[in-house]
């Protein structure tokens, strides 16, 4: 996991990298409070969300006319792909449109802007990147629910799935006429969830009596529902509408979990051949964030949503600014001794970070995750919970742990770490451990 200590000023780093790169990818959502305007419809003025280069033409290599300060109001002239032609300070030029937002919030109706219609068959992806796994392809003309914005990507929900789509293929629309998509149901018996809508179909899992499931769609007398990280079909006669009082203590209740994909950018972490720890960690982290929000109702935030470098201090800072309730850092191990193998969880020792009041809670969090990993992935050795002085778990002011999912240098572990099935299982085990901890932690 290779830690380095650095105390860069987050704001300085962020704004300067944007100015230098012009199109630099933001390491996290620049408008975390949910920018819900219909930005596809041209407004007359926009506000910059970063120090932003005004360029001669619509290209990152084009000469910079001037740098517009963060928060400034610019006049919109026209659109050019992902660039806007704007006027500011007596000059007219081009800016990257993902760093501006509509500056007249009073005229917007958030409810109408929170739904978009696709203008092509559009891939819903796991993360905000064109190389990211495709969760599903949304048909042209379908209505999606807007969740948040990540640069030129929108996080949206469609048909029970949440992921990222390229925002240029969306157009604002009203709320859909069918209102059932977010409904929850409660089971009235121990109920089999099946692969398809038929009583002879494979059982994916048995949902306990009284559990709350998320409704996805209807199929004759069967409902497609999500539960425990799985989606499948149940006989609808054994469901009743969920009562509103049940979920408050047992679900995420919208509490924020900060997921930290280790390394990134010019720091690859452990390397084995063409395998980079930063890439594997990011994929597990993205799956974990998705399970935490879709299955358990947490507000999952990632410290980095792309392949960028963040210092350890920045990761701790982000936990604070996201108002996280817990922090989990995702890593892989490596050793020159290729026989070393297994997963382990690192928690604070209590010696180096004596002012941290969350040491005991961090250990409980780590133990819960370790237990779930051990039970759900028995084919990787369980090395247990280790007390270690790690910056991100010692310095964070919330319960924090660092998970090493296995050794990239060991062939057995590597076969798991390179399998998307096992990455998902690692993510689901971790989510379950986090949820077990959070259910007892107030
Ligand atoms: Zn690492």
UniProtKB/TrEMBL annotation:
<keyword id="KW-0961">Cell wall biogenesis/degradation</keyword>
<dbReference type="InterPro" id="IPR036028">
    <property type="entry name" value="SH3-like_dom_sf"/>
</dbReference>
<dbReference type="InterPro" id="IPR050695">
    <property type="entry name" value="N-acetylmuramoyl_amidase_3"/>
</dbReference>
<feature type="domain" description="SH3b">
    <location>
        <begin position="181"/>
        <end position="243"/>
    </location>
</feature>
<dbReference type="InterPro" id="IPR003646">
    <property type="entry name" value="SH3-like_bac-type"/>
</dbReference>
<protein>
    <recommendedName>
        <fullName>SH3b domain-containing protein</fullName>
    </recommendedName>
</protein>
<feature type="domain" description="SH3b">
    <location>
        <begin position="112"/>
        <end position="174"/>
    </location>
</feature>
<dbReference type="Pfam" id="PF01520">
    <property type="entry name" value="Amidase_3"/>
</dbReference>
<dbReference type="GO" id="GO:0030288">
    <property type="term" value="C:outer membrane-bounded periplasmic space"/>
</dbReference>
<feature type="domain" description="SH3b">
    <location>
        <begin position="41"/>
        <end position="104"/>
    </location>
</feature>
<keyword id="KW-0378">Hydrolase</keyword>
<dbReference type="GO" id="GO:0071555">
    <property type="term" value="P:cell wall organization"/>
</dbReference>
<dbReference type="Pfam" id="PF08239">
    <property type="entry name" value="SH3_3"/>
</dbReference>
<dbReference type="GO" id="GO:0008745">
    <property type="term" value="F:N-acetylmuramoyl-L-alanine amidase activity"/>
</dbReference>
<dbReference type="InterPro" id="IPR002508">
    <property type="entry name" value="MurNAc-LAA_cat"/>
</dbReference>
<dbReference type="GO" id="GO:0009253">
    <property type="term" value="P:peptidoglycan catabolic process"/>
</dbReference>
């Amino acid at each position: 996991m290779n830690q380095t200590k650095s105390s860069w000023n987050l704001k300085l780093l962020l704004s300067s990298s944007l100015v230098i790169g012009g199109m630099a990818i933001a390491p996290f959502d620049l408008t975390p409070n949910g920018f819900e305007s219909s930005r596809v419809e041209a407004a007359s003025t926009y506000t910059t969300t970063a120090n932003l280069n005004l360029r001669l033409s619509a290209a990152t290599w084009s000469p910079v006319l001037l740098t517009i300060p963060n928060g400034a109001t610019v006049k919109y002239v026209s659109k050019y792909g992902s660039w806007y032609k704007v006027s500011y300070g007596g000059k007219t030029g081009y800016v990257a449109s993902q760093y501006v937002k509509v500056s007249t919030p009073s005229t917007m109706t958030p409810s109408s802007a929170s739904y978009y219609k696709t203008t092509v068959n559009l891939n819903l992806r796991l993360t905000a990147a064109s190389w990211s796994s495709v969760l599903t392809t949304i048909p042209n003309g379908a209505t999606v629910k807007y969740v948040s914005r990540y640069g030129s990507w929108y996080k949206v929900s469609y048909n029970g799935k949440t992921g990222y789509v390229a925002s240029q293929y969306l157009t604002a629309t009203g709320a859909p006429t069918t209102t059932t998509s977010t409904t929850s149901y409660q089971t009235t018996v121990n109920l089999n969830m099946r692969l398809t809508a038929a009583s002879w179909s494979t059982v994916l899992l048995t949902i306990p009596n009284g559990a709350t499931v998320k409704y996805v769609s209807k199929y004759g007398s069967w409902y497609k529902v999500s539960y425990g990280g799985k989606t499948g079909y149940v006989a609808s006669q054994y469901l009743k509408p969920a009562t509103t009082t049940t979920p408050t203590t047992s679900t995420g209740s919208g509490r924020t979990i900060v997921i930290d994909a280790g390394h990134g950018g010019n720091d690859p972490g452990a390397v084995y051949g063409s395998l980079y720890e930063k890439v594997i960690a990011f994929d597990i982290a993205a799956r974990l964030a998705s399970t935490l929000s879709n299955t358990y109702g947490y507000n999952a935030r990632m410290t980095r949503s792309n392949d960028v470098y963040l210092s350890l201090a920045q990761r701790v800072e982000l936990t604070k600014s996201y108002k996280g309730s817990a922090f989990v850092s995702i890593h892989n191990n490596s050793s020159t001794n290729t026989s070393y193998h297994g997963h382990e969880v690192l928690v604070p020792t209590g010696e180096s970070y004596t002012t941290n009041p969350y040491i005991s809670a961090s250990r409980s969090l780590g133990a819960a995750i370790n237990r779930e990993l051990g039970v759900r992935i028995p084919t990787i050795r369980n090395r247990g919970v280790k007390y270690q002085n790690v910056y991100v778990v010692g310095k964070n002011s919330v319960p924090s742990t660092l998970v090493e999912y296995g050794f990239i240098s060991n062939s057995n572990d590597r076969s798991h770490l390179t399998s998307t099935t096992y990455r998902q299982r690692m993510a689901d085990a971790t989510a379950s451990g986090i949820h077990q901890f959070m259910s007892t932690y107030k």
